[in-house]
Amino acid sequence: MSAVDFGAFVAELATESGKAILPFFRAHHATEDKSGGGVFDPVTEADRAGETIMRHLIARSFPAHGVLGEEFGTENADAEYVWVLDPIDGTRAFISGIPVWGTLIGLTRGGVPVYGMMHQPFTGERFSGDGRQARYEGPGGLRTLRTRDITTLAAATLMTTTPALFKGNEAAAYARVEDRVRMARYGCDCYAYCMLAAGHVDLVIESGLQPYDIVALIPIVEGAGGVVTSWDGGSAAGGGAVVAASNRELHRQVLALLAG
């Protein structure tokens, strides 16, 4: 079965998780800090509700598949197909009432990301891809996603969640790139990668990611013509320090700067 065969099921996961999550947005709800006393790491009832319904649907439809989710951990991690779920990527934006969060639904086969969707139920937008093509569905209608072909850093737009992600050598490496680009913007979490796939942003650089933060986004960016790797050029599927670029030439230049 090819990854595209899962498209209708992923759409169902998006619809049902959106129904579970959306009533909590811009409403009074409990927020917990799961950091254990470190940097504030919020989780809400909406996070848990969204992941619960997706796990239920996966278990019902594909009981042999594995699941890796932010809120409830990993089940059947050695399965050929593993679903990688982040019910609310951008929980800080969510609890602040800002609609730049999204539900990430990723699928790996043999550890390789093969399908992904970012669903924003408040705006009614869906960005999806299988590594070969990517598309947008939302208020603007249906369209194919393509990255733009800017190949010079001086003309590029860079995004990151916050420069505070980077410490020590990573901070210096990130600064070398930001110093060379036309414009840098902060925030947006998963939305930044989708805007790269849509041709509005050229680079996204982050660190400290978990697999559920990035797996769903890789097939979207790659399907739109972009590149997503770790800072050393390897697979980004495991998270960590990640760079996404709109094309290979820009990606090459950024990796060279990050390496120093």
List the helices and strands and how they pair.
Elements: H1 7-21, E1 31-33, E2 42-44, H2 45-61, E3 66-69, E4 73-75, E5 81-89, H3 91-95, E6 102-109, E7 112-120, E8 125-129, E9 134-138, E10 141-144, E11 157-160, H4 168-178, E12 183-186, H5 190-197, E13 203-209, H6 211-214, H7 217-223, E14 227-230, E15 240-245, H8 248-259
Parallel strand pairs: 3-5, 11-12, 11-13
Antiparallel strand pairs: 1-2, 3-4, 5-6, 6-7, 7-8, 8-9, 9-10, 13-15, 14-15
Helix pairs in contact: 1-2, 4-8, 5-7
Summarize the structure.
The protein is α+β, with helices and mostly antiparallel strands.
Q: Report the span from N to C terminus.
A: 43 Å
Based on CA atoms alone, the radius of gyration comes out at 17 Å
Q: CATH topology of the largest domain, anyone?
A: Fructose-1,6-Bisphosphatase, Chain A, domain 1
Task: Output the helix-strand order.
Answer: HEEHEEEHEEEEEEHEHEHHEEH
Q: What is the number of helical segments per DSSP (H or I, 4+ residues)?
A: 8
Total domain count = 2
Strand residues, percent: 25-35%
